[in-house]
Amino acid sequence: MRISIWRILMAGLIGTAMILAPATTANAATARIKDIVDIEGVRDNQLVGYGLVVGLNGTGDSLNNSPFTKQSLQSMLERLGVNTAGENVRTANVAAVMVTANLPAFSTQGSRMDVSVAALGDSGSLQGGTLLVTPLLGADGEVYAIAQGPVSINGFKASGDAATVISGVPTTGRISSGALIEREIEFHLGAQTSLRLALRNPDLTTARRIALSINDFIGTPTATPEDPATVRLTLPRGFNGNIVDLLTDIEQLIVQTDQTAKIVIDENSGIIVMGKDVRVSSVAVAQSNLTVTIAENPTVVQPAPFSRGVTAVEPNTTLDVTQRDTALAVVEESVTLQQLVDGLNALGISPRDLIAILQAIKATGALQAEIEVL
């Protein structure tokens, strides 16, 4: 009887463990390999160009204040057979712009891509304008695409004699499929036998887990972690396919990601973001607020009747100083992020004061996390 009861208890414990184990794994952060790495050679290339936008309804550059617009306009007209040398050009329907774009990886000649347009001079709005033929150059000075087309903007500007209304930024716009790719960037991914996977969030633990996951799936030593940001991938012998086939097979593998404990602070907006692994030792914190209120209530003083005095304004300043002292509070040693936040919120402080407190706790060595200030 005792043996039977012991077996029943053991079976129940094993069953409970099998139920709880997947829940623990599910709580960990997981992601596909394709979502956390970049493949060597598979990247965009930035392009830039200078051009003219025409057709503006009087909102273009003032040519007297934008000599580069005037020179570009005259050069363009001369290439079209119109001689404007020595003439005083006063059009307000032309604006000089900078055109930027990202050339996608493996783009073929003749395909199209989007471009962004931004005014360079004192143009008030690009609404209704059309970008003329603009070569887009890469970092090597070569032309990779040609941009042209009507500019679409998200904002607008309307003005009268005594008021002006501006919504959004009317001096920037976008041309959907506005650039025609003229030159391809040569890179034969399928011919590679070895390449690197670059982690978007470098971490030693994550890099090792990626390599182990790939090697377990392929069955041979295929991936090697080289540093926190790089995993070397080598095409194994006897693999049925090229490197593209290998990448296709492994990019859907699920990996448990890891990250360092970090607190990101934006002092300008007072935003604080904490990672889930942030820990703090027991510390005592006291914080005092000093509020100074200044109110100006000027008083108008009238002279006595039939006197030679004049009406004057006498300043009247009210100054109030309020100091709120907070008793020394203890923030207990935290186990979870929620407990840390609850402990800091118990002090009743503002986010900007919390920034200074976190930096002070870090200085004492009680905060086990990295602080990054934007």
Automatic annotation (TrEMBL):
Record's keyword terms, sorted: Bacterial flagellum, Cell projection, Cilium, Flagellum, Periplasm, Signal
Any one GO molecular-function label of the UniProt entry: structural molecule activity
GO terms under cellular component: bacterial-type flagellum basal body, distal rod, P ring; outer membrane-bounded periplasmic space
TM ranges: none
GO biological process annotation, one example: bacterial-type flagellum-dependent cell motility
Keyword Signal tagged: yes
Pfam families per the UniProt record, alphabetical: FlgI
Keyword Signal: yes
Xref: InterPro entries: Flag_FlgI
Signal peptide location: 1-28
Subcellular location: Bacterial flagellum basal body
Family membership: Belongs to the FlgI family.
Assembly behavior: The basal body constitutes a major portion of the flagellar organelle and consists of four rings (L,P,S, and M) mounted on a central rod.
Function: Assembles around the rod to form the L-ring and probably protects the motor/basal body from shearing forces during rotation.
NCBIfam families documented for this protein: PRK05303.1
Name of the featured protein: Flagellar P-ring protein
